[in-house]
Amino acid sequence: GSLERRRCLYLHTGRAFCQMVEVLLAVLILVCSSVSCGSAGGYTGLPALGGIYYYQYGGAYSGFGGAEGQRAQQLDQRFYLLKLPIARAAMVVGGCLLIFPCVLILVSVLQVPWYFPAWLLIECTLYIVIAVSTVPALYYFLHSLLSVYNSSVCKEREQLYQSKGYQGFWCSLHGAEIAAGLLACMAAMAYLLSAGLAVRDYRTVHEQKQKPLQL
């Protein structure tokens, strides 16, 4: 009936669009955070795998052997453990940022703001708090990662791989981590926009609910 149509109409509003964008950004933050975490498997000597792995890198592939191979594996595992708490924290934040707009979409589809307009002001406040909190959270994320990359473990790991001619093991932020930071900034701007739209919708609902009283 008309109630169902009104519920579906919300999904075509600007506030719903912003919330869907927030869901997408949260999913991307989760993906980038998981990529940043990497694998706990450590280094594996490719020649030992045999077959296509060996020939893909050529028969002259030197790899690591003996004590060097064990040291490379230890450094990989220690480096992984250093980054793990940061990646987990980022994934938890990303998960919360994913759940939050989903809950707000559900609340609005159920027309809670129509029956309780003050909810929109609460929503606005939550959006502003999250947007402001994104700044120190992003600083902590990047500062913690840079601390890991400046650690002796990372430096030794980088030198060990470079001694064998491997690239891509630099002690610096990689693409996924930079992308996570940019996505967090975009999410903060989306939250501020949603906060403004929530105030606008509060005024609209308040005016519409006052009309019958004026008649």
List the SSEs and their pairings.
Elements: H1 2-10, H2 14-37, H3 46-49, H4 51-56, H5 67-109, H6 112-115, H7 118-149, H8 152-162, H9 175-214
Helix pairs in contact: 2-5, 2-9, 5-7, 5-8, 7-9
Average pLDDT metric: 82
The level of helicity is: over 70%
Write down the oligomeric state.
Answer: single chain
For the record, the count of structural domains works out to 1
Overall 3D form: elongated
Biggest beta-sheet profile: none
Mind explaining what this structure looks like?
- The protein has 215 residues and is an all-alpha fold.
- The chain has one domain.
- It is 80% helix and 0% strand.
- It has nine helices and no strands.
- The protein has helices at 2-10, 14-37, 46-49, 51-56, 67-109, 112-115, 118-149, 152-162, 175-214.
- Helix 7 runs antiparallel to helix 9 (175-214).
- The longest helix has 43 residues, at 67-109.
- It is elongated and about 80 Å long.
- InterPro entries: Marvel (IPR008253), MARVEL_domain_protein_3 (IPR053077).
- Residues 10-203 form the MARVEL domain.
